[in-house]
Design brief:
The protein is mainly alpha-helical and 86 residues long. The chain has one domain (2-85). It has 4 helices and no strands. The chain has helices at 2-9, 13-41, 45-72, 80-85. Helix 1 runs antiparallel to helix 2 (13-41) and helix 2 (13-41) packs antiparallel against helix 3. It starts with a helix and ends with a helix.
């Protein structure tokens, strides 16, 4: 989370908006997984499974946006080696 915030703080424009949504989706997935754990501990296995499935879907969407940040916007990509070779 800390490295994501550090990367995000140096972005502008579309990458900044995408990063904000990416972070929000990952946070939502975390909260859904915690809810799933709590539901299962209370014996509500069906609800736990539903929350876990929702968390997976949200995490997939967040992962897609994370890929956009890296491959489209170059966020978190070290450029030192590329400059030495090119």
């Amino acid at each position: 989370i800390a490295t994501g915030w550090a990367d995000w703080s140096n972005t502008r424009g579309q990458a900044r908006r995408t990063g904000l949504i990416h972070g929000a989706l990952n946070e939502a997935a975390f909260v859904l997984n915690v809810g799933s754990l709590l539901a299962r501990r209370r014996g509500r296995r069906g609800l736990g499974k539903a929350l876990s499935g929702a968390a997976l879907g949200v995490a997939v969407a967040g992962g897609f946006l994370g890929g956009e940040l890296v491959y489209r916007h170059g966020l978190g990509v070290g450029r030192t080696l590329a400059h030495r070779q090119g």
